[in-house]
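Worked example 2:
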Amino acid sequence: MKKHGFSLVELIVTMSIMGVLAMMAIPSFQSSNQDLSNKLTCIDQLKQIQWAKRKWLDQHTSVGPPFSNPPPDSEIMGANGWLPTLSCPSGGTYSVNNINVYPTCSTPGHVIP
């Protein structure tokens, strides 16, 4: 006599193994989504800093050659700047750099494309 199908015990064991595997996989997906979100937020903030540098340059074109020195951080971000003080969500630090160079973040991979 041939037996067709699976017994209830076999199905329960299989489902519990699949549940354990899913519980182990879900946190890794969530952390990778958080890393991507932090990276995209950082890149957006770097673009905002670049915009603020251009606005600063528009107001200070009479201050010598436009690419000679970076604008002071205090005139880009902070109480007297174009932007509030920004910080990388991954804990990196921003460098404003010269006008003709994009701002950078100390976190690897956080660069303006």
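Residues 32-105 form one domain. The beta strands are 94-95, 104-105.
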